[in-house]
């Protein structure tokens, strides 16, 4: 039976458990032939083969959320491992994170070129040493200082094993070679997909690491054609369809190729949910979005939890 049935169970557990941390209970499921397992709200992919299977679209797929910059909330700053853990206390989630590089070539989690907005330090990441960054503390989005430190990419990759799928946003100053080396050295090929924004970048990354999953921006039929011209197989593609909702027919065209769609609801669409009600997240999924990349992962997961299909066909993977 397809691995996707196993992961379907995960998303049912995760989405039903996002009201409160107290609702989270440990679940156990039978292992299948690939030894991919589920424990509570965590994902455990044994190898890259299970990632391919997980990201192959099927009609019984369960809608997911992706926590943009790890899902910061008050007291939990962006791109912090403690923030990732906080989101996973409420719902299973893909974790999107940003990687920058220090003066001495250490890969750290940081979105901005500068340290000023998110830490109590100052200066450009690429102009300071890792030793300096180690001395800093992260600030949340309200500017409140926390006790959390800036993690390295290696620490994040190691933490995520058996817990979460990652999508890695590579800042322009970071060589692709460094990212791939870190993914390889931590045996993270099975759960770390790399984000690209241009077709040349995607083609280069695929040539360097053809086994890795890539998140590639594909927003229209022309970009579907351009992707196919790169020679990257659809089995290695997760389609980021942009920050505006796409026609149902376009999403279906990607589904017919076995591809998951990620709709970026962060920004305007998240704000629409705040003003019009969180049920709008369900409408995005009904229109063909499979993964909602959001700044509100806990709320979005709660809104789409009622959309999970009947559990009757997935009894093999139920909690014992």
Automatic annotation (TrEMBL):
Occurrences of domain GP-PDE (ranges) = 63-304
User: A single GO CC term, please?
Assistant: plasma membrane
Any Pfam family from its record, for instance, is: GDPD
* GO biological process: one example: ethanolamine metabolic process
- GO MF annotation terms: glycerophosphodiester phosphodiesterase activity
Q: Which PROSITE patterns match?
A: GP_PDE (PS51704), PROKAR_LIPOPROTEIN (PS51257)
Question: Which Gene3D superfamilies does the record associate with it?
Answer: Phosphatidylinositol (PI) phosphodiesterase (3.20.20.190)
Name of protein: Glycerophosphoryl diester phosphodiesterase
């Amino acid at each position: 039976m397809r691995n996707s049935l196993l992961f379907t169970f995960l998303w049912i557990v995760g989405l039903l458990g996002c009201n409160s941390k107290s609702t989270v209970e440990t679940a156990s499921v039978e292992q299948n032939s690939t030894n991919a397992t589920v424990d509570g709200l965590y994902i455990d992919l044994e190898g890259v083969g299970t990632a391919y299977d997980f990201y192959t679209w099927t009609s019984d797929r369960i809608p997911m959320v992706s926590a943009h910059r790890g899902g910061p909330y008050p007291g939990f700053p962006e791109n912090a491992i403690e923030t990732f853990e906080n989101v996973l206390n409420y719902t299973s989630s893909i974790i999107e994170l940003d990687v920058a590089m220090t003066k001495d070539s250490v890969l750290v989690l940081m979105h901005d070129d500068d340290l000023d907005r998110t830490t109590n330090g100052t200066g450009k990441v690429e102009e300071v040493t890792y030793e300096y960054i180690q001395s800093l503390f992260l600030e949340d989005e309200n500017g409140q200082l926390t006790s959390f430190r800036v993690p390295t990419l290696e620490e994040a990759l190691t933490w995520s094993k058996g817990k979460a799928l990652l999508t890695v946003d590579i800042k322009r100053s970071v060589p692709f070679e460094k990212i791939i080396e870190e993914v390889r050295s931590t045996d993270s090929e099975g759960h770390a997909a790399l984000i690209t924004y241009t077709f040349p970048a995607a083609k280069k990354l695929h040539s360097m690491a053809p086994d890795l999953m890539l998140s590639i921006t594909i927003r229209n039929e022309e970009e579907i054609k351009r992707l196919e011209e790169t020679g990257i197989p659809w089995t290695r593609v997760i389609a980021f369809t942009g920050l505006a909702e796409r026609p149902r027919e376009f999403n279906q065209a990607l589904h017919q190729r076995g591809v998951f769609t990620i709709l970026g609801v962060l920004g305007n669409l998240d704000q629409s949910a705040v003003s019009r009600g969180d049920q709008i997240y369900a409408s995005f999924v009904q229109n063909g979005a499979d993964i909602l990349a959001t700044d509100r992962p806990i709320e979005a997961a709660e809104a789409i939890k009622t959309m999970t299909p009947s559990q009757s066909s997935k009894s093999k993977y139920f909690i014992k």
